[in-house]
């Protein structure tokens, strides 16, 4: 659907990352059901809530199309869901940083995957609601992300990327989601599985997904 007027459009966005562009502006890199993976220009000031633009925040916004520019403006942002535990629990915060970086690097600007936003939002809300046994959540997320992006993985698909962690990968693939969160793994094993899944995603997206926050996450989720 073409947008060729300056009339504001309502949208719900997942914030993946932000880039500062001057004293009072930044670019928000987002995912939404309306626009897919797209960046918007925002004006920010002292009155802008500090938590509004944190990674994986889900916000409501007004989008102003601009037929003369690909970088449209977003304003009137407000929080859709508070995501309390994601901001207060260190382990979950580390997972959030990892997942937001994965999405930022794996989903290309300007692309649209049917159902990706809805799945991603549901995953964020699920992580926020979990009270325990979420140390494997990022592994399940990576596996489901591959499926959401159109290349669901079997064990045979993952085997070439899983040297040293094939047993853990087999258990992850063959176990239902709720039970997969309970699979016993230490930090080293989780990091190995995450690296293998990132290699699988890199292969299918034809771009190296180098996620710097993985090392930090491995230290926290020992």
Helix content: 40-55%
Radius of gyration: 18 Å
- The first-to-last residue Cα distance is 47 Å
> Which residue ranges are poorly predicted, with pLDDT under 50 across at least 5 consecutive positions?
none
Give the percentage of residues in beta strands: 15-25%
Coarse shape? globular
CATH architecture grouping of the largest domain: Up-down Bundle
Mean pLDDT: 92
In this structure, how is the largest beta sheet organized?
A: 5 strands, mixed, barrel
Q: Briefly, what CATH class of the largest domain? A: Mainly Alpha
Number of beta strands: 5
CATH topology label of the largest domain: de novo design (two linked rop proteins)
Strand order of the largest sheet: 1-2-3-5-4
Structural class of the secondary elements? Answer: alpha+beta
The succession of helices and strands, N to C, reads EEEEEHHHHHHHHH
Number of helical regions: 9
Number of domains: 2
Structure explained in plain terms:
The protein has 222 residues and is α+β, with helices and mostly antiparallel strands. The chain has 2 domains: 9-79, Nucleic acid-binding proteins (OB fold (Dihydrolipoamide Acetyltransferase, E2P)), CATH 2.40.50.140; 84-220, de novo design (two linked rop proteins) (Up-down Bundle), CATH 1.20.1440. Helices cover 41% and strands 19% of the residues. It has 9 helices and 5 strands. A 5-stranded mixed beta barrel has the order 1-2-3-5-4. A hairpin with a 4-residue loop joins strand 1 and strand 2. Helix 3 packs antiparallel against helix 4, helix 4 packs parallel to helix 8 (187-205) and helix 8 (187-205) packs antiparallel against helix 9 (213-220). The protein starts with 8 loop residues before the first strand and ends with a helix. The model has no long low-confidence stretch (mean pLDDT 92).
């Amino acid at each position: 659907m073409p947008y060729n007027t300056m009339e504001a459009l309502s949208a719900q966005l997942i914030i993946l990352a932000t880039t500062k562009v001057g004293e009072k502006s930044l670019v928000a890199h987002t995912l939404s059901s309306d626009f897919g993976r797209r960046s918007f220009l925002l004006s920010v000031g002292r009155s802008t809530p500090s938590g509004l633009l944190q990674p994986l925040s889900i916000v409501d916004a007004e989008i102003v199309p601009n037929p003369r520019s690909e970088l449209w403006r977003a304003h009137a942002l407000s929080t859709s869901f508070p995501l309390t535990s994601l901001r207060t629990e260190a382990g979950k915060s580390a997972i959030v940083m990892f997942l937001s970086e994965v999405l930022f690097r794996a989903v290309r600007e300007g692309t649209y995957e049917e159902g990706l936003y809805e799945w991603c939002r549901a995953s964020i809300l699920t992580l926020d609601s979990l009270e325990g046994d979420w140390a494997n959540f990022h592994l399940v997320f990576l596996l489901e992300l591959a499926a959401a992006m159109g290349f669901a993985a079997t064990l045979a698909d993952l085997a070439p990327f899983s040297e040293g962690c094939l047993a853990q990968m087999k258990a992850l693939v063959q176990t239902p989601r709720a039970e997969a969160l309970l699979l016993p793994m230490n930090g080293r094993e989780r990091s190995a599985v995450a690296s293998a899944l990132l290699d699988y995603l890199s292969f299918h997206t034809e771009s190296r997904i180098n996620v710097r926050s993985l090392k930090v996450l491995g230290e926290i989720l020992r």
